[in-house]
Design brief:
With 178 residues, the protein is an alpha+beta fold. It has a single domain, classed as Cyclic phosphodiesterase (Cyclic Phosphodiesterase, Chain: A, Alpha-Beta Complex), CATH 3.90.1140. The chain contains three helices and nine strands. The strands form two sheets. The protein has a five-stranded antiparallel beta sheet with strand order 2-6-5-4-7, covered by helices on one side. A four-stranded antiparallel beta sheet has the order 3-1-8-9, with helices on one face. The longest helix is centred in the middle third of the chain and has 16 residues.
Length: 178
């Protein structure tokens, strides 16, 4: 099986550390916590990729990012995907920001233009913190975190290594600078 690739907004180290700490302080019984170094905000999941298509996507994304400048984002909530009482994903939510949606749409369009078929679900900006609820009791949402602010300065093309931890390797990096 080949590697999987995805474009994501990189998080500053201080935010990764803070999110990791906030998650562990809440002592929630999820089977797998995401490694601190693997925390990110996915913009476009590509899956397996032929080198030629990957190169075209890199060129396209680099081109569209020239039209963006860094903008502020705020992490201000927790949420889940899956069954409410036994969620499969626990995440930190990002406050609605039109520029983030524009960035995600532009990166996705650049990847589609390179020949990738992306998922059609609506974009729900989030940072996955843990997977698979293992609690004896039904899941009860924890208190929201204190707001964490950061700037969207770097988009990364990640390569996935399922057999190691951390499992995401920075394959290429693009600065968000107009």
């Amino acid at each position: 099986m080949g590697y999987h690739y995805f474009f994501a907004l990189a998080l500053p180290e201080s935010v990764k550390k803070q999110l990791h700490q906030v998650f562990h302080e809440r002592n929630l019984p999820f089977a797998r916590a995401v490694h601190e170094q693997d925390l990110h905000l996915t913009l476009a999941f590509l899956g397996e990729a032929e080198e030629e298509k990957l190169e075209k996507a890199r060129e396209n994304v680099a081109e569209v990012l020239r039209t963006f400048s860094p903008f502020s984002l705020t992490i201000d909530s927790f949420g889940t995907f899956g069954k409410q009482e036994q969620p499969r994903i626990f995440w930190a939510g990002v406050k609605q920001e039109p520029k983030l949606h524009q960035l995600q749409e532009a990166v996705s369009a650049a990847c589609r233009e390179a020949g990738f078929q992306l998922e059609s679900r609506p974009f729900r900006p989030h940072i996955t913190l843990a997977r698979k609820w293992r609690g004896e009791e039904a899941y009860v949402p924890p208190l929201a975190p204190s707001a964490m602010q950061f700037f969207s300065e770097k988009v990364v093309l990640y390569k996935t290594h399922l057999d190691r931890s951390p499992k995401y390797e920075e394959y290429d990096t693009f600065l968000v600078t107009e």
